[in-house]
Amino acid sequence: MKNTPFDIPIFDLTGKVAVITGSTTGLGYGMAVAFCAYGAKVVINGLDEEDCKKISDEINVMGGTTIPFKADVRNRQEVQAMVAKTVETFGKLDIMVCNAGIGITKRIVEMSDDEWDEVVDTDLKGVFICGAEAAKVMIEKEIKGRVINISSAGGLVGTKNIAAYCASKSGVISLSKTEAMEWGRYGITANAICPGYVPTAINSVPLAIPRVKEHILAKTALKRLGEVWEIAAVALFLASDASSIVTGAYIAADMGTTCN
Q1: What confidence tens digit (pLDDT) does each residue in 112-127 have?
Q2: DSSP 3-state of 196
Q3: Is residue 184 situated within a structural domain?
Q4: pTM for this prediction
């Protein structure tokens, strides 16, 4: 159809530049591939320099345009350096995906302060730092950017034995809403994705236990696990012009785990 808003490919990311934290594996890797497939240039981030380079090279061979950058999201100076390298290389930053995260499985009464801090510093403080540093550049360069924060279905409901993870992911949702309120006047959107169980490294332990996996599947409306590409598709929507008026929201991409 002609003369409609859909004459242009609204999911196209051609000319956009994205940083995706924790993109050497799992959901982050899937999002990096998806963004490159739709035309974005992507900074591959992780804690291991060799892994970052390996994944960057792999995606470039597939036809993408990426650079690797090792940085710890808990360290503001390292994040600032990553953002600066992004701008130096590509001239701007349009999309920040705050995906890096960890989990420690322990009962509340058994968890140490250090273990709590390790999870919260990565899963919540890291999201705060990366979003803030990206927004500074977007505001300075008058870029109507996108901040996409990866929360979890565990941020919407309590889950036994991962209290620090759930608390952090719940905080990510509230942080996203506040970011949306503060940055909306600059045309920057901020949203959260709440994935359910997807077969990735962070979920390998519970999914390897048959009775636990059976319980997880029973709680989903769709009676199945998600796939990495399905979460990447949600991130692609939030990164694209298709989501231009969506901000301060969370999308529960959890196979219906939290719908009741």
Answers
A1: 999 999 999 999 999 9
A2: coil
A3: yes
A4: 0.95
pLDDT tens column, 71-105: 999 999 999 999 999 999 999 999 999 999 999 99
Residue 225 lies inside a defined structural domain of this protein: yes
Tell me what pLDDT residue 8 has. 65
Residue 7 lies in a domain: no
The CATH number assigned to the domain holding 204 equals 3.40.50.720
Domain residues for the domain of 28 are 13-253
Cβ contact 31:5 at 8 Å: no
Question: Encoding tokens for residue 4?
Answer: 């409609």
> Residues 53, 55, 60, 63: what is their CA dihedral angle, to the nearest 10 degrees?
180
Residue 161 region by backbone torsions, left for phi larger than 0, else alpha for psi between -120 and 50, else beta: left
Q: Helix %, strand %, coil % for the chain, to 5?
A: 50, 15, 35
Q: Which of 165, 186, 197, 250 is catalytic?
A: 165
Q: Is residue 260 part of a domain?
A: no
User: What whole-number distance in Å separates Cα of residue 246 and Cα of residue 243?
Assistant: 5
197 is known as an active-site residue: no
> Alpha-carbon distance 158 to 27, whole Å?
22
